[in-house]
Amino acid sequence: MLTQADSLWRVGLAFVAFCMVSSATYLVNDVGDAEEDRRHPTKRHRPIAAGVVRPRTALLAAAGLGLGGFAVALAVRPAFLAIVAGYVVTTVAYTLWLKHMAVFDIAVVASGFIFRAVAGGVAVDVPISRWFLIVTSFGSLFVVAGKRYSEHVTMGVERETTRSTLATYSRDYLRYVWTTASAVTLTGYCLWAFEQSELETTIPWFELSIGPVVLGILRYALLLDEGYGGAPEDIALNDRPLQVLGVVWLVLFGAGVSVAH
Question: What is the pTM of this model?
Answer without folding.
Answer: 0.85
